[in-house]
Amino acid sequence: MASKLSFPFLCIFFFSLFAIPVFSHLHPNGLLDNNTSQSPFEFLKNMQGCHKGDKVKGIHDLKFYLSHFGYLNYQSNPNVTNPKEDNFDDELEEAIKSYQVFYHLNATGTLDAPTVSKMVKPRCGFPDKETHQHSDKTLHTVSHYQFFSGRPKWPKDKRHLTFAFGSRFPTRFMPHVVRAFSKWATASQYFTFSRAITYQSADIKISFARGSHGDGSPFDGRGGVLAHAFAPTDGRFHYDADESWVIGAVPNAYDIETLALHEIGHLLGLAHSEVENAIMWPTFTSGVTKGLNFDDVQGIRALYGN
Questions:
Q1: By residue range, what is the domain housing residue 71?
Q2: Most-buried pick from 164, 192, 252, 291 (CB within 10 A)?
Q3: What's this model's pTM, rounded to 2 decimal places?
Q4: Are residues 98 and 159 part of one domain?
């Protein structure tokens, strides 16, 4: 990643090659609908037990999933002639091992039950590894927090950042996103935040979106990617409007502040952490709230020199 990312997933090539099944309910406000729909990650359950040498319908979707989140890149591999094939090859095995190491699973290279259980969990849309490599040599890692390649961050003369909400952002959620900014201000001992006068003038722009929404990183309906944000100094932060969003711990819904804390971490320059209790851990559980962890605080202070 250079000093500025063009979009959060870093895998346009794979959007053109594969298609994870999407089940999207376009309900009126997109925020508190209780209708159930199949998660776009559910197809992974049909792949359970697959291992190197198998040829099973749908493996190409598994390849897309791992590409999408930074573990696989057939585009740069000259030995791969057709990444759409449903072959469980050496590259896929190595990608699964890399995923298993990140999530503290046994690195079997097989799509076993514990691995599938992790993969189907709703999560942030940012990749865990932006380099699509099986080592972390290009990522700066201290403890378990991570920075983006090139360590993009806000310049020294931008210690005060402004934010604004899109015109359709529910007002009942705004104070809880504001509180997330306040928590990061305290944790960083570097930034202060305030509401911008206009949306256009804000350093950070927060909105709800669904499906393809113009940033090259479409949302996927209920139960898959919950939200995404961009590395410094882009400033865009999007919630998936097809999810059920609430304030606090409510069964079968996601806490607006918990996801704000996570995505603000990306906006400030933190990548995903390998510490499960950290707010920068990639996956989330409905009905659960989460706050900043010591690993998150260490990471932001290390990045900005505190």
A1: 12-24+38-120
A2: 164
A3: 0.85
A4: no
Specify the amino acid at residue 138: T
The C-alpha atoms of residue 303 and residue 31 are separated, in whole angstroms, by 34
The answer to whether residue 16 is domain-embedded is yes
pLDDT tens column, 64-93: 999 999 998 876 766 666 667 899 999 999
**Tens of pLDDT, residues 230-241:** 999 999 999 999
Residues 6+ apart with CB under 8 A from 293: 273, 275, 277, 278, 279
Catalytic residue among 91, 130, 263, 274, which? 263
Residues 149, 297 share a domain: yes
Mean pLDDT (whole number) for 83-104: 92
